Amino acid sequence: MKEFRPRRDIPRRVVVTGMSGITSLGQDWASIEANIRAGRNGIRTMDDWAAIEGLLTHLAGPIPDFSKPAHYSRKQTRSMGRVALMATRSAEVALADAGLLNDPSITDGRMGVAYGSCNGSTEATINFARMYTDQSTRSMSATTYIEMMSHTCAVNIGLFFGLKGRIIPTASACTSGSQGVGYAYEAIKFGQQSLMAAGGAEELCAADSAVFDTLFAASLKNDTPELTPRPFDAGRDGLVIGEGAGTLILEDLEHAQARGATIHAEVVGYGTNSDGAHITQPTAATMQAVMELALQDAGLSPDAIGYVNAHGTATEFGDIAETTATHAVFGSRMPISSLKSYFGHTLGACGALEAWLTIEMMNRDWYAPTLNLDNVDPRCGELDYIAGQGRTLHNEYVMSNNFAFGGINTSLIFKRWKQ
To answer: How far apart are CA 125 and CA 398, in angstroms?
Structure first.
């Protein structure tokens, strides 16, 4: 194998050469955009959840049309649960988009993986737990742990495509995907890798909804799934869990230009920090600080940013803290919207999916409104909330923010690519 010797003399410029995602509204931008423009979300009432005693929310954003691709062999997928399978398929499409699917540069050590999810697969976790409840190992197999482990997505992507670079698993709840993108950016920027597959994934699990149910943070509009979630709205009643996978292929600019790659955007800023306070309640001051860290990393002033893709979960504490922090950085002029109003909260996938769609919107000068935002909660920060119809804007720089349990905060800045 050719030895990879990265350059570490000066920071590298990092570009996005491949993008893909799997969502409840489609698996390509054209399908997703059509649904967004039609005002449709992917939220459904999960009738079988009614049988779970004590679970009050029966809402979710499932992906109805995803299954194992026909060209994936049993041997290739025996260590994959649904979450790893979605992650691997998303990575495959993104690699194809980048023109790298069969390129030898991805298997000689130049390419690594930074990818995350909240958990591994639910079925494998259940089978593992049955050893205790049934006092028997009959439900376990040689791959049960691999399917349930927190780094199952990153490892399975690396194995499937023969990647020999560094593996960075990012199991940080709702910032898993955005940390995947951010840490991949840093690995390339500082000369550790030339290419990275970055992102996050999550499979639908009733237990994830139960987590927020117990915190009184899940939506209970079980009979009207089309009307929830409602980020920033005075009438919101909580979040809805979704599922999906999103992948960005990041590349050293010189490497991308040398092979004539199509460039979707440049990653110019990343910040991450933590609240150091409450385990589930966000802190506006550190949310503000993480946006400022990203701006500092990019060498930009706040007025350079033309749009913020919000985390926007439709929880009271989250919406108020996030928008207050955003106002503190940008003032009231900032256009902002939340894509979780369409897909629900896809947890480990959301940071990657929202980064992908933010780039798509920037490149098309059209930004999706927050669905179901009728009356902005007056306790939210004063901002230019995009609601009702989408907004036509021409921006050179955009920001995508995510915040997670444990007080983990991330902010990414993307720049429009100019030939």
So the answer is: 38
Q: CB atoms < 10 A from the CB of 300, how many?
A: 18
Q: How far apart are CA 58 and CA 47, in angstroms?
A: 7
For this structure, is 278 an active site residue?
no
350 is an active site residue:
no
Q: Is the peptide bond before 369 cis (omega within 30 degrees of 0)?
A: no
Pick from 343, 56, 346, 51: which is nearest to 220 by CA?
A: 56
- Closest listed residue to residue 365, CA positions, set 385, 394, 345: 394
Q: What is the pTM of this model?
A: 0.96
Q: What is the mean pLDDT of residues 43-70?
A: 96
User: Given 118, 345, 350, 380, which residue is catalytic?
Assistant: 345
Q: Which of 58, 255, 311, 327 is flagged as catalytic?
A: 311
**391-410 confidence digits (pLDDT tens):** 999 999 999 999 999 999 99
**Is 151 an annotated catalytic residue?**
no
Domain 14-258 CATH class label = alpha beta
Catalytic residue among 58, 151, 153, 174: 174
**What does the block give as tokens for 359?**
């780039």
Q: Which of 100, 74, 208, 81 is nearest to 151 (CA)?
A: 81
Amino acid at 38: A
Element (H, E) at 414: strand 408-416
Domain 14-258 matches domain 271-416 at the CATH topology level: yes
Tell the CATH superfamily of the 271-416 domain.
Thiolase/Chalcone synthase (3.40.47.10)
**SS3 state at 251:** strand
Sequence-distant (6+) residues with CB within 8 A of 260 are: none
Q: What are the sequence ranges of the domains in the chain?
A: 14-258, 271-416
